[in-house]
From TrEMBL:
UniProt keyword annotations, A-Z: Acyltransferase, Transferase
Organism: Streptomyces spinosisporus
Pfam families: Acetyltransf_1
Residues annotated as domain N-acetyltransferase: 6-169
Protein name stated in the entry: GNAT family N-acetyltransferase
Length: 170
């Protein structure tokens, strides 16, 4: 599979349950890479309502193959941080790629979709949180220009989430 055969589109109403399952797989890969035991993570049934809301609100996009199989997702929205102006910054809330599809450019396509969404809203600044122990995620975001802004909050295993920011000129 190559990124050239992947399309990015809005998530469809009937896809929320499948997105919850995919999110469970991507979360497991993300957190276990940092040393968190998989048994400590919520399953798809616990996060299904989260995805139903995100899809209904139009905050979710998916990466799909030619046969419309979803292999990744992107969720954006107003930042949840009290010290960030929601009128001038958007939060990249989730990027997830099916772990067996890593390394094929899908994450890059999803990130490009995030930038397009920023620009469509007339915004150039993004914010996200990344769990510090996940070196792969840290490297991915750094390669796209994201930099720590000094804000941190406690995460699993006593390891911090690091807040990252990016500016992408119009």
């Amino acid at each position: 599979m190559t990124a050239t055969r992947i399309s990015i589109r809005s998530a469809r109403g009937g896809e929320a349950a499948a997105l919850a399952v995919l999110h469970t797989r991507t979360r497991t890969a993300y957190y276990t890479a940092g040393g968190l035991p998989a048994k400590e993570l919520a399953g798809a049934e616990q996060i299904s309502a989260y995805w139903e809301r995100a899809v209904a609100e139009g905050r979710a996009q998916v990466a799909a193959t030619l046969d419309d199989r979803v292999v990744g997702f992107l969720m954006t929205g107003p930042p949840k941080f009290d010290d960030i102006d929601a009128t001038s910054v958007r939060e990249l809330q989730q990027i997830g790629v099916e772990p067996n599809s890593w390394g094929h450019g899908i994450g890059r396509l999803l990130h490009e979709a995030f930038v397009r969404r920023l620009h469509a809203d007339g915004i150039t600044d993004g914010v996200l949180e990344c769990w510090e122990p996940n070196a792969r995620a840290q490297a991915f975001y750094a390669s796209h220009g994201w930099r720590p802004d000094g804000s941190r909050r406690l995460g699993p295993l006593g390891r911090d989430y690091v807040r990252l920011r990016v500016t992408v000129p119009l």
